[in-house]
Specification:
about 50% helix; DNA-binding; homodimer; elongated
DNA sequence: ACTACCCTCCCCCGAATGTGGGATTGATGT
DNA sequence: ACATCAATCCCACATTCGGGGGAGGGTAGT
């Protein structure tokens, strides 16, 4: 990569814009190509200044009552490869999660020291995903919760009942389930009856939804 | 945190065990409390040496045909707060993903320089989640894909058809759907017919499964 | 021995669903 | 004006489901 890294900064705090903007503007290898107090018409602003990296305050008063996260969503949809880093003053787990889901690739606390911010910009520009270790840990926690359960049904449903439920999730009819499991149609009905009771549902759609939403089965 | 950080190392390669083991053993502030060539009976081994941090090769021949990932799963279930870091020789995206889901909190490439490994151990012990930037980026990608789609159906289903499908996902019967949408029972049936055709499914369970698995609707 | 499950199978019956036709409006676009 | 399609409704028929029973054999624990 030759040349300098063009950075666009979105933050409603004048203080941050000034200090961070000056820092970026005076660092060799980095150039501040845009600096905005809000994310109204992000797409237009980004189109105008063509940044390589975007720094976005997570806490900004957005256009339609939204915040910086909505801006990220729009921006990421339009420019999937444009790295966006979120800025915030403290590590709010939920907003971290939402930002990353919205398409942000990195995450920084405003009270990180200035050098760390610069490092992060270079990092993100070269394909990394800079995060403070504590934020990274939080991301990991979400990750693990996502893949964790898998066994919530173990205590609730018997082995055979899980087989039948899995078959339901696979879209099979009772007859096909009987076939797959090598048992009679009536037995399938019996198992499903019990599954419905235990899950407190009344039809296959609800059972499948409950199973998949809770990530109880594949 | 007073005292030294006790580390347990699991790796089937003698070379790695020797080099990494020596490194850990001779670094002040870090102590190697256990060093094993396999993860058979991980729980017992960990119980014996009581580490503060576990380093686990991702590529180990496990007890029942499993690998290091299974060991992590067991370990994490038993000791949710024990930080586990994975070691591997190259960045295999799927295994990264699986490891993190299994409960690993950090991830290192074996050809990272030794200093980085030591830093990571300290990091992870103090609540961080050390990852190489490229690995972090991959994690981000999974994160984003997870929350992304939401609109794949937009081109396929009409607005009303999506309403009906959503109601199905919510577990409603045709009659309840008609009620919710303020249309007749027959109209609901009609819409659902079309949805089934477009999704290539033949019953509600399959439709719901296809919808949720593809994250097409909430 | 007794109890408590689980798995298997069976019957009945009413209700819900899947599939095959239709028909009518209104909006949209050519 | 015409075709197209979404959205609304209708009918008919066979199949599938959901809920209510009950029964027998097995395994595991108390």
């Amino acid at each position: 990569m030759s040349g300098i890294i063009h950075v666009a900064l979105f933050d409603d705090s004048k203080q941050i814009r000034d200090s961070l903007g000056t820092l970026l503007g005076t660092t060799r290898g980095i150039g501040l190509c845009g600096c905005y107090p809000d994310a109204v018409n992000v797409l237009a602003k980004v189109a105008a200044c063509k940044p390589d990296v975007v720094l976005m305050d997570i806490d900004m008063p957005g256009p339609n009552g939204g915040n910086g996260i909505d801006a990220v969503r729009a921006l990421h949809q339009e420019h999937p490869d444009l790295p966006i880093m979120m800025l915030t003053v403290f590590g709010d787990e939920e907003r971290v999660y939402d930002s990353l889901r919205a398409g942000a690739v990195g995450y920084l606390l405003k009270n990180d020291d200035p050098g760390a911010v610069l490092d992060a910009i270079v990092d993100v520009h070269s394909g990394g995903a800079p995060m403070t270790p504590s934020i990274a840990r939080k991301v990991m926690l979400h990750f693990q919760h996502e893949g964790a359960p898998k066994d919530a049904l173990a205590v609730l449903l018997s082995s055979r009942e899980k087989d039948v439920l899995q078959a339901l999730v696979d879209g099979l009819s009772y007859k096909m389930i009987a076939d797959r499991l090598g048992i009679s149609f009536e037995t399938v009905r019996s198992h499903i009856k019990h599954v419905y009771e235990k899950l407190h549902v009344h039809n296959s759609a609800e059972a499948v939804a409950k199973t998949l939403k809770g990530r109880l089965l594949g």
